UniProtKB/TrEMBL annotation:
Although this enzyme belongs to the family of MTA phosphorylases based on sequence homology, it has been shown that conserved amino acid substitutions in the substrate binding pocket convert the substrate specificity of this enzyme from 6-aminopurines to 6-oxopurines. InterPro entries: MTAP, Nucleoside_phosphorylase_d, Nucleoside_phosphorylase_sf, Purine_phosphorylase-2_CS. Homohexamer. Dimer of a homotrimer. This is Probable 6-oxopurine nucleoside phosphorylase. The record marks E174, L231 as: Important for substrate specificity. It comes from Lysobacter hankyongensis. The keyword Transferase applies.
């Protein structure tokens, strides 16, 4: 992995669908670390936000060219670590399943169920690497979750505290039956990128928490069970919900 000279990075932010850059960053410099796991989804933009250096990476690439199952999650986290990040705020665009998570809601989930398959989900993949069995009972770092919720409260931004994120394979959206099963399993939110990112962050020893942006009702979950989910709706709702993001980040 490259060793890069850097100012201390207070926070790394990984942006999801509809969040390809952070307007709040000033004095931006760009880094392109290549890691032992390969190249990240795109450049890392490091800028100043509320007086602190913050690193930003677009999870799908800045032109949204990398689908969820093709993202090199290990390289993304390794690249953020290489520029000095120790704490990661993951912004994930999701569908809402249960009543508290309607479109345009911001949520800070505390649990995950992983339905993805075939993704490299560990740093132990290569032969000869140490076998890790990290504790993952609380998949998001409780202290970082608490900071996010406190910042939201200071900024007057409504964020739903808790809930379970169900990570699906994508890139297609789910069937109504899949969402009904996820609801029975206890999922409140559904997205395609929450895993293996959170598990890898734990293996890297990074603090990691998710701020989920609800873009739509998941299939069959809303008041009109036959409503179709469109990319237009997703992007419009992410943009609307994103209005709370700037104040929250300034307060964090
Ligand atoms: N399902 C999975 N991922 C998503 C959704 C959804 O309904 N909306 C935004 N990301």
């Amino acid at each position: 992995m490259n060793s890069i000279a850097h100012d201390a990075i207070a926070l790394a932010i990984i942006g999801g669908t509809g969040l390809y850059k952070l307007a709040e960053l000033h004095d931006v410099e760009t880094r392109q670390p290549v890691t032992r796991y390969g190249a990240p989804s795109g450049p890392i933009r490091i800028g100043t936000l509320a007086g602190r250096r913050v690193a930003f990476l677009a999870r799908h690439g800045e032109g949204h060219s990398v689908p969820p199952h093709k993202i090199n999650y290990r390289a993304n986290l390794a690249a953020l670590e290489a520029v000095g990040a120790r704490r990661v705020l993951a912004l994930n665009t999701v569908g809402g399943i249960t009543a508290h998570y309607g479109p345009r809601t911001l949520g800070c989930p505390e649990q995950i169920i992983d339905y993805t398959w075939g993704r490299i989900s560990t740093l132990c993949e290569e032969e000869g690497t140490d076998v890790l069995h990290v504790d993952f009972g609380d998949p998001y770092t409780p202290a970082l979750r608490a900071e996010i919720l406190a910042a939201a409260s200071r900024a007057g931004v409504a964020v739903v505290d808790g809930g379970c994120y169900g990570a699906t394979q994508g890139p297609r959206l789910e069937t109504k039956a899949e969402i009904a099963r996820m609801r029975r399993d206890g999922c409140d939110l559904v997205g395609m990128t929450g895993m293996p990112e959170a598990g890898l962050a734990r293996e890297f020893g990074l603090d990691y928490a998710c701020l989920a942006i609800v873009a739509n009702w998941a299939a069959g979950a809303g008041p009109d069970p036959d409503e179709q989910i469109t990319l237009q709706e997703v992007l419009a709702n992410v943009e609307a919900a994103g209005a709370g993001l700037g104040p929250l980040l300034h307060a964090l």
